[in-house]
Amino acid sequence: MKMLEGKTIAVIGGSGNLGSALAGRWKDAGLNVIIGSRSGTPNAQAAAEADIVVVTVPYAAQADTLADIAPHVVGKIVVDTTVPLMPPKVMRVQLPAEGCAALRAQACLGEGVTTISAFHNVAAHKLATGNKVDCDVLVFGDDKNARQVGIALAEAAGLRGLHAGALANSAAAEALTSVLIFLNKTYQADGAGVVITGALAGHD
Between the N and C ends of the chain, which has fewer C-beta atoms within 10 Å? Predict the structure, then answer.
């Protein structure tokens, strides 16, 4: 949390389910949050005013949204939460040509922007309740210090964030989302998530 003190966080797509749930949790944690959406502060303005930008838009809107904010996020950390779900076959893994949505985000944003990815496997409706959510957040990125910011954001939302390696590794979590959707339907689960077992040094 300390590294987030005095920082402004823009949640792009903040009126959507995941964005609004995360924004609410971060506000409850005392963080300064701006909601970027069509019905609120324009995305580009929200991104310009923020220190950290979290993108929570559907895959179909990812490229256009990133193009809109790209000029305003140079020198900043952008947390991409995008999962490449392609209706109607959302229970089938369909990764993009770039390898994963996170690498696609990095390509869209260009040099000078530090892209990390996180929050792929946590159910938005569970976050929205404000109750404890038994789910880990895997944080991917090529810059360890930037990943630590993602972990701090997860912890501020009441979740356990874990370093999960390079940005390319985001493909694993993105693909797993389709598997979780399948599990939810098959076993009538209420927002199945991921918990990493075993003792992890540095975590309770």
Answer: C
